[in-house]
Design goal:
This protein has about 700 residues and is mostly beta strands. The protein is built from 8 helices and 47 strands. Strand 23 and strand 24 form a beta hairpin. Strands 38, 39, 40, 41, 42, 43, 44, 45 and 46 form a 9-stranded mixed beta sheet that branches. This is Fibronectin type III domain-containing protein. InterPro entries: FN3_dom (IPR003961), FN3_sf (IPR036116), Ig-like_fold (IPR013783). It comes from Levilactobacillus lanxiensis.
Length: about 700
């Protein structure tokens, strides 16, 4: 019996798969078999194949099914029908194409020990069935097309027919007491008719003398003219068929129809927003109020919000976060309340994903994915859609502690990174989507083992005053101190205070590249990399959420001044043993020159000095990314410089005023010892949200 290797997705297949993340529809078109032995080809060699050699059969694919968000099942039936000569089944290829594009070879499976496919000689057709699990960027964008000559297996047919009922069995499925047209039906319980019932002649029931008889003795009595008198005044129908009470025309009103209604999460304020649309038919009387009701999913009681008819939209406050609520509405006139509107379900959580992807080419531009598709990001007051979405909307640059330190508050968020030879992705969300996402350690309380709602990052580079590291405007940041001094003076502020570390840098790197869809940060904003150090506060008077004063001025990313440039900043939580990075999660245990627990070594080494082309990604420690391949271009790939370590070193981040352009959001200087001090090196204060 044949043994097969796993299906290998080709380079062209990976590129087509990545396009589905941006919404491109694709379809799997057909399969081919070959008698060429490819079992000795490596995975990389198979990835480069664009055409199958020595093709024997061209086959249809069966009914494609979706297994999960990134996997589809493709059945292929290989038989000896129409095969005129025996052959060894050595390989199977799947082909695919964009709905409006050209076909490519998507994936190849090779046999370790092939099956013999004998020629058809008039006897029973024989063969083998394949069910290939195929990776795709977004399974929702696989367009399923069934070939006219494709066949359906018993299993597939049973799946299609499982929800159908035989005509002979239909009566057994219907509920007892169902009303049938033309039959004798017994009606029990309360019944509501959209139109009043009439007799065979079209007359309404309980009319004329019958109505008088029914009413007599209750609220009216028959008049001599056959009408009804109420309080001595006759109620009758005139010659025009209009109901009159004495000389006055009687106006009748019904309850209004159900209103239109929508409810959805307003992410800009973090509250559900509702909107009521008045019905076109008000029942003949003016609608005087609308009522919105809501309850947590699973509860029985509703909470009502009644408003004047002039108020047809609003927000609901005080709801529990990360919960699901049901909303509905009705309107009222003087005849009563309308039926309920449709019911809307709203999650009180922002679970949108914002992402970018990179094809690993020399072009540093990224492709927006998920909820970031179509968004625009500008600086210096230009349009920036990220000001009102996701984590960016919740960043607050007005935070001041009781010591006068200025901070930018970054809300708790979750990150997901992936990287292969052909594709890298960055994604961020305010909600944890699944276990493939990680919470940066700056949002974790190691003592009480719980998540923290935010982290405060110094708006300005750090200044030492009275033995404490500060974040203040209008002063020059302190330089020429070793990392140990800065670390001690940061902690001197109290519980939760620390130096800028690798975990905070990870957060702002991800936010930056997703917002601006590039890994070339200097193409967006230049940091100060020539001239001299500038005073804190010189980069905070531009328009918009981010920007710079001039090509040589202080840049400002969402309130964080000199994110890179001006002076190098010590990045705590990283120790370098020659070219091997060691990292630590718990900021309370940071210590220089330690290469043992609680520090852990990454599974890669740092490359030689040069402009970064590839970053390492240790999936156990995805927050720490350093260059594993360098080149010599400041406008391609990551475009930022990497300084290679020698011996035991600490980490410096961002670039400085005498760096000759060597600055940026991915710029690392991993070269200096823990005792090193320099006029171009300083620090930044951070405060975790600890009690």
């Amino acid at each position: 019996m044949a043994k097969w290797n796993q299906l290998v997705i080709t380079d062209a297949g990976y590129q087509l798969s990545a396009k589905t993340l941006a919404g491109t529809k694709i379809q799997y078109t057909h399969a081919q078999t070959t008698d060429k032995d490819m079992s000795d080809l490596t995975s990389d060699e198979l990835k480069s194949v664009t055409k199958l050699d020595s093709v024997v059969q061209d086959l249809s694919v069966g009914i494609i099914t979706v297994q999960d968000d990134h996997t589809v099942n493709i059945p292929v039936k290989v038989s000896n029908q129409d095969v005129t000569a025996d052959y060894l089944l050595c390989g199977l290829a799947i082909f695919a194409k964009p709905v409006d594009g050209d076909e490519i070879l998507y994936g190849i499976a090779t046999a370790v020990s092939p099956d013999l496919m004998v020629a058809q000689n008039g006897s029973t057709v024989v063969g083998t069935n394949f069910k290939l699990k195929v990776h795709v960027g977004s399974a929702a964008n696989v367009n399923i097309v069934i070939s006219p000559d494709g066949s359906v297996s018993n299993e597939e047919l049973e799946g299609i027919l499982k929800d159908y009922v035989l005509t002979s069995e239909l009566s057994k499925k219907l509920p007892e007491g169902i009303v049938t047209e033309g039959g004798n039906n017994v009606m029990t319980g309360s019944n509501v008719f959209k139109a009043d019932p009439v007799d065979a002649d079209g007359n309404a029931y309980v009319t004329g003398s019958g109505a008088v008889a029914a009413a007599e003795g209750h609220f009216a009595q028959a008049s001599k003219s056959g009408g009804v008198t109420i309080s001595g005044v006759e109620l009758e129908v005139d010659d025009a068929g209009k109901l009159k009470y004495g000389d006055d025309l009687v106006l009748m009103a019904n309850k209004p129809q159900a209103p239109g209604f929508t409810a959805a999460m307003d992410f800009s304020v973090g509250q559900p927003e509702w909107t009521v649309t008045l019905p076109k038919i008000d029942g003949g009387a003016s609608i005087v109020s609308s009522t919105v009701q809501y309850r947590k999913s699973g509860d029985t009681d509703w909470t009502s919000i009644q408003s004047a008819v002039s108020v047809l939209s609003g927000h609901v406050t005080g709801l529990t976060g990360n919960s699901e609520y049901e909303f509905r509405a009705f309107v009222s006139n003087y005849a009563g309340d309308s039926p309920y509107s449709n019911t809307e379900t709203v999650k009180t959580m922002d679970d949108r994903i914002f992402g970018v992807s990179w094809d690993m080419s020399s072009d540093p531009k990224l492709t927006r994915t998920d909820a970031a598709v179509g968004l625009v990001a500008g600086i210096n007051g230009s349009q920036n859609d990220f000001d009102t979405v996701g984590p960016w909307a919740k960043m607050d640059k007005t935070i001041t502690d009781d010591k006068g330190n200025s901070f930018v508050r970054i809300p708790k968020l979750y990150i997901k990174k992936t990287q292969t030879d052909k594709l890298a992705t960055w994604q961020v969300s305010l909600s944890k989507i699944d276990d493939t996402w990680y919470l940066p350690k700056c949002f974790w309380d190691f003592t009480n083992q719980k998540e923290l709602d935010y982290v405060d990052v110094g708006r300005y580079e750090g200044t030492i005053s009275s033995g404490k590291l500060k974040s203040n405007s209008g002063v020059m940041a302190t330089v020429s101190q070793p990392i140990g001094t800065f670390r001690t003076d940061a902690k001197a502020n109290g519980t939760g205070y620390q130096l800028l570390d690798v975990h905070v840098i990870d957060v702002w790197q991800v936010l930056f590249v997703i917002e601006f869809a590039t890994i070339n940060s200097q193409s967006i904003m230049n940091g100060i990399s020539s001239g001299s150090q500038v005073k804190n506060g010189s980069g905070t008077n531009h328009a918009g959420s981010s920007g710079f004063l001039s090509p040589t001025g202080a840049m400002d990313y969402r309130g964080i001044e000199n994110l890179y440039g001006n002076i190098f900043q010590f990045a705590d939580g990283v120790n370098m043993a020659s070219k091997k990075p060691w990292v630590c999660d718990d900021s309370s245990k940071y210590q220089s020159d330690l290469f043992a627990a609680p520090y852990t070594s990454l599974n890669y080494s740092v490359a030689e000095s040069g402009y970064s082309e590839r970053m390492g990604l240790d999936t156990n420690h995805p927050f720490a990314q350093f260059a594993t391949k360098t080149g010599d271009s400041e406008s391609t790939y990551y475009s930022d410089y990497n300084y290679t370590p020698s011996g035991n070193c600490v980490a410096l981040y961002g670039g400085n005023w005498n760096g000759s352009g060597y600055d940026g959001v991915f710029c690392w200087h991993l070269y200096e010892s823990s005792s090193y001090l320099n006029s171009g090196i300083g620090s930044r204060l951070v405060k975790k949200a600890l009690a």
